[in-house]
Amino acid sequence: MAHSAIGQRLVACLLNVSEARRKELVETVARAAVFDSNGGQREGTTVLNIFNDQDYNRSVITIVASIDCIREAVLSACEQACGLIDMRAYAGGHPTMGAVDLVPLYPLGEEVGLGDCAKEARAVAAGLTERVSGTSAFFFGWADSPQHRGLAQRRKEMGWFRKNPDTGASRPDVGPLPQKRYGLTGIGASPYVMNCNVTIDTQDLALGRSIAMAIRESTPGGLPGVQVLALPHEGAVEIACNVESMKGNPPSQVGERGEPWPTFSIGGQLYCHAPASLITARVTELAGRQGVATKGTALVGFTPHECKGLAERALSLGIAEFWKELRRVHM
Predict the structure, then answer these.
(1) What are the domain boundaries of the chain?
(2) Are 72 and 39 in contact (CB under 8 A)?
(3) DSSP single-letter state for residue 89
(4) For residue 331, what pLDDT band results from cuts at 50, 70 and 90?
(5) Which segments of the protein form a coiled coil according to its record (predicted)?
(6) What is the CB-side half-sphere exposure of residue 225 using CA atoms within 13 A?
(7) pTM above 0.90?
(8) Interatomic CA distance for residues 199 and 208, integer angstroms
């Protein structure tokens, strides 16, 4: 099958789990997405990348499948993660509320819409709470009907940003009151969200927070579509950005090297997102005013264009564990 035909019906899930220090465990979760219980390879499904951050004790598994296959792939991975990760023993430097903390579905293909991904997200939530007794979930994005509240808003409502969130006080949309073993899972659908983290060479968290405030979307003069946290990370401070895709033509801002905002379409509607170089340049400028240098920028996974292209390649070659084939490091 030609790459273009494969790509028309693709959906990506950047599955966030609260474990990174046990690499074999995380890879077991990833394999559950692409192999069934008998060891057979799932049709039309691949894992492109596994990102482990041991300091945060958090991993992001990039699963891509056709819209017809994504539900079972993601459900199986979630079920495996819930069986292996116990939140009562969790310790890490990143905010989290669940063994499976986040299940976002993003349409990649022209024949897949946000409504399709929302339907699958809600089915994943129902399936997870049925298969793993005691699990619970809240919805965000297009899966949160009819409000369509964004992930940041829903996380704030659930207490995700608190240092020690009380999951038992949260009111999930599906399942019972959260149990300490599994915690609470966010499940939703939206246009692609890229994760871009810029590390500044300081331990001054207050400085990091001031930079985060300056560049986030809600601040006048901030970067459209960018949601930001400043977090201690490996002896420095990381400006951790969720880069949301926005409907319509790109704004006039360009990246550090003058490149335009990348664009893609969903159902004929144009979307764009801030380039990583623009985020890096803004953080570098703000940190530099205080005499602080940047140490580097990391993408957690891929841009939307990269994700679709690599998935088409992996699926056309029948490679389920594509993360093993990937030679260049994506963080």
Answers:
(1) 1-191+304-330, 193-300
(2) no
(3) G
(4) very low
(5) none
(6) 26
(7) yes
(8) 9
Instruction: Give how far Cα 287 sits from Cα of 198, 214, 225, 253, 296, Å.
Output: 11, 11, 21, 20, 13
Encode pLDDT of 188-247 as tens digits: 999 999 999 999 999 999 999 999 999 999 999 999 999 999 999 999 999 999 999 999
pLDDT band of 251, cuts 50, 70, 90: confident
d(CA 321, CA 30): 8
Read out DSSP for 295-326?
EEEEESS--HHHHHHHHHHHHHHT-SBGGGT-
Q: Do 1-191+304-330 and 193-300 agree at the fold level?
A: no
Retrieve residue 68's tokens: 């017809």
What phi and psi, each to the nearest 5 degrees, are found at residue 291?
A: 75, 20
Structural tokens at position 116: 């399709």
CATH class of the domain defined by 1-191+304-330: alpha beta
Quick one: tokens of 60? 């992001």
- Report the CATH number of the 193-300 domain: 3.30.70.670
Give the angle 244-248-252 at the CA atoms, nearest 5°: 85
